[in-house]
Amino acid sequence: MNRLYTGRKSMFIAGTALLGATVAVLDWLSKIFSLKIPFPLLTPLKFDVIGIPTVISYLLFGPLSGIIACIVAFLSISFRNPFSGFMKGLAELATVIGAFLILRAKNPSVLHKRKKIFAGISSIALRVI
């Protein structure tokens, strides 16, 4: 995490609010305009753009900001369907928690220089499991 962003409360609040609002807007735009990107290998699977601002908020402002973005995604989707909102919020939370656990690992020899790549892969694996 960048100490420049997490050290100032106003920057944390503004950044979290901005990225949380981006999550809500992307959710509604993807629902209205069908902004889902098909996965090349298996076309029934679709990429979801809501996870991008959630992970960015975690990486810039810390785990609390990522969790708040997950809550915003949950609330935004819950207006349409509470069960879908719960499942999407849980999936995004698994991504944030997986990245948090890997980036906070105590053994640097396992992760070495590719820590963030490993965190992304492990958060995807945690979401699948």
Summarize the structure.
By secondary structure, the chain is mainly alpha-helical. The chain has helices at residues 3-6, 9-33, 51-61, 63-78, 82-103, 108-111, 115-128; strands spanning 37-38, 46-47.
If you had to describe this structure to a student in words, what would you say it looks like?
The mean pLDDT is 81. This protein has a single domain (3-128), classed as Arp2/3 complex 21 kDa subunit ARPC3. The protein is mainly alpha-helical and 129 residues long. It starts with a helix and ends with a helix. The protein is globular and about 40 Å long. The protein is built from seven helices and two strands, in the order ααββααααα. α3 runs antiparallel to α4 (63-78) and α5 packs antiparallel against α7 (115-128). It has a two-stranded antiparallel sheet with strand order 1-2. The protein has helices at residues 3-6, 9-33, 51-61, 63-78, 82-103, 108-111, 115-128, and strands spanning 37-38, 46-47.
| Largest beta-sheet details | 2 strands, antiparallel
- Tell me the β content: under 5%
Structural class of the secondary elements?
mainly alpha
Fraction of residues in helix = over 70%
Distance between the amino and carboxyl termini:
26 Å
Overall pLDDT metric: 81
User: What is the overall shape?
Assistant: globular
Query: How are the strands ordered across the major sheet?
Result: 1-2
Order of helices and strands: HHEEHHHHH
Radius of gyration: 15 Å
- Low-confidence stretches are none
Fill in the CATH topology.
Arp2/3 complex 21 kDa subunit ARPC3
CATH class reads Mainly Alpha
Number of helices: 7
Task: Quickly give the CATH architecture.
Answer: Orthogonal Bundle
Number of strands: 2
Q: State the domain count.
A: 1
